[in-house]
Amino acid sequence: MANEERQTMNCKFRLKLMRPSTRAFVREARRTPGYSFFDWLHGYVYGRWPYLYIGIGTGEHPLARILERPGRLVLRLFSRWTNNGRSTSSSITFADTYHGKVVPLEAARHLVTVQEEISLTNLEQVVPYTLARDIILHNPDHIVALECPCRSSRAHACQPLDVCLIVGEPFASFVVEHHPRRSRWITSDEAQDVLQAEHERGHVHHAFFKDAMLGRFYAICNCCACCCGAMQAWHSGVPMLASSGYVSQVAADECNGCTTCFDYCQFGAISVNNGSAVVDTSLCMGCGVCGSKCPWEAITLVRAPDKGAPLEIQELMTR
Q1: In angstroms, what is the C-alpha Rg of the chain?
Q2: Residue-range domain boundaries for the chain
Q3: DSSP class of residue 84?
Q4: Cα–Cα distance between 145 and 195 in angstroms, integer?
Q5: What is the torsion angle, in degrees rounded to the nearest 10, for the CA atoms of residue 41, residue 47, residue 52 and residue 57?
Q6: Residues 6+ apart with CB under 8 A from 132
Q7: Which of 30, 75, 32 is nearest to 52 (CA)?
Q8: Which of 56, 61, 150, 259 is deepest in the core (most CB within 10 A)?
Q9: 246-303 maps to which CATH number?
Q10: What pTM did the predictor assign?
Q11: What residues contact residue 305 under an 8 Å CB cut-off, 6+ apart?
Q12: Could you report the per-residue pLDDT of 37-83, keeping only the tens digit for each?
C-alpha cells in the first residue's frame, strides 16, 4: 500500500473516532486559509475545556497557581505558531489573537437575527486587530446559550450564568456536544431576550473573535466588569476590547447630576462635576448602557470616527 493511501486511511480512521461536532470543526478548519494544526489544537483545547482555560487565565481556577506558568507558556506557543508551524511576527500580541468588539444592544440583536449565511473578511476598520477579524456565519440560526466561563470561575458570580451566546457552526454544535450540562439550544427570539435582560442589568455586549476559533466571530458575551476577564484585562491596559465606534454625549442642560450613569458605567468613563455628568471619551467604549439608564434621557450615542467603524452587520452585508 502506498504511503499516501496509508496516511489517508489513518486520517479517516481518526476522524471516525471523533465526535460529529469535532469532525465538523476539522472539516471547517481544512477549508480555512492559513489555519494550521497548531491553530486547530489550540481551538480544540479552548472549546473543549473553556472553564479551565479561562479560569487559569483569570487566576480564579483552583489550579491557577500550579498551572499558571506552564499554561501561559502553552498559550504563547499556541498564539505564536501559525501558518503550518512557522512563527509569526513578534509584534503579534495576545490581544491580536483574542478580543471583543463592543456592540450596542441593537447591533447585538442584529447579530442573532441573521437569516442567511455570510462571509465578511478583512474587517480591519471594524475589528482593529492583526488577526481574527472575519465574520463568517454558517447556519446563523444555530445559537447556544452557554454558562459564562468567566462568571463560573468567580466565587460570587453575577447571575444568571448562561448568558454567553455561541452563534453559528461549527461552534454551536461543538459547545452543545461537549458541554451538555452547561449549554442549551435557543431560538433567535430567546437570544434577543437574553440580550435585553443583560442590557437591563447594565451589562455590556461584546462580539468575540479568536484566532484559534477559525480566526472569526463566534460568540456574543454579555459582560460585567466584576466578572469578565476581558474587561479586567482592558482596565489593566491590555487592549482586548475595541470600541463600538460610538461615544456617549451628555446634554448638560437636561442632566441633573443624579449619578445613575456613573453607577452603571462599566468602563469608568463618567464622572459628575458641578451637577452634571461628564464623559471621558478616551475611556468611553460606546456601549450605550449609560444612555439607557439615564432617567432624564440626557445621554445619547454619537459616532466617533477616531474610534473605528461600528460592527453593524446589516450595513456590512449590504456593502
Answers
A1: 20
A2: 3-243+309-318, 246-303
A3: T
A4: 11
A5: 80
A6: 96, 97, 98, 99, 209, 210, 211, 213, 215, 216
A7: 75
A8: 150
A9: 3.30.70.20
A10: 0.88
A11: none
A12: 888 999 999 999 999 888 877 765 565 556 556 656 665 665 555 44
